[in-house]
Amino acid sequence: QVQLVQSGGGLVQAGGSLRVSCEASGRTFSIYAMGWFRQVPGKEREFVAAISRSGARTNYADSVKGRFTISRDNAKSTVLLQMNSLKPEDTAVYYCAAARGAGVLGAPTSQAAYDYWGQGTQVTVSS
């Protein structure tokens, strides 16, 4: 079992930056691939970014490539999503998630691969 507690996010103007953080409980953080997803009311939750257990591999949605960076600190059991050059269409509730069965270099893009989810954090980008 792992519990994920998110922080960060908020309101920013278009072109600005925000960071969302996710801290995991327990001492087995390094066995989980981590991901970020986002959801807008009335739409399906969509993949944003993922990182493998050691951080050696990352995956990004095309819509955020070059603007968002996912990173992790296994010593602090934390995964970060740095969001730059934000656009109004990035407005959503962002969720972190942990995947136990992803393999050493796995950075899954599918929600089905993830076992645990954070509580969600609102990110709002004004135009």
Summarize the structure.
The chain contains no helices and eleven strands. The protein is mostly beta strands and 127 residues long. Strand 4 and strand 5 form a beta hairpin.
Give a verbal description of the structure:
The structure is a single chain. The mean pLDDT is 96. This protein is an all-beta fold and 127 residues long. It has no helices and 11 strands. The radius of gyration is 13 Å and the shape is globular.
Radius of gyration, whole Å: 13 Å
Terminal Cα span: 40 Å
Strand content: over 45%
The coarse overall form would be globular
The count of β-strands is 11
Low-confidence stretches: none
The total count of helices amounts to 0
User: Average pLDDT value?
Assistant: 96
User: Mind describing the biggest β-sheet?
Assistant: 7 strands, mixed
* Share of helical residues: under 10%
Which structural class is indicated by helix and strand composition? Answer: mainly beta
Sequence of secondary-structure elements: EEEEEEEEEEE
Oligomer classification: single chain
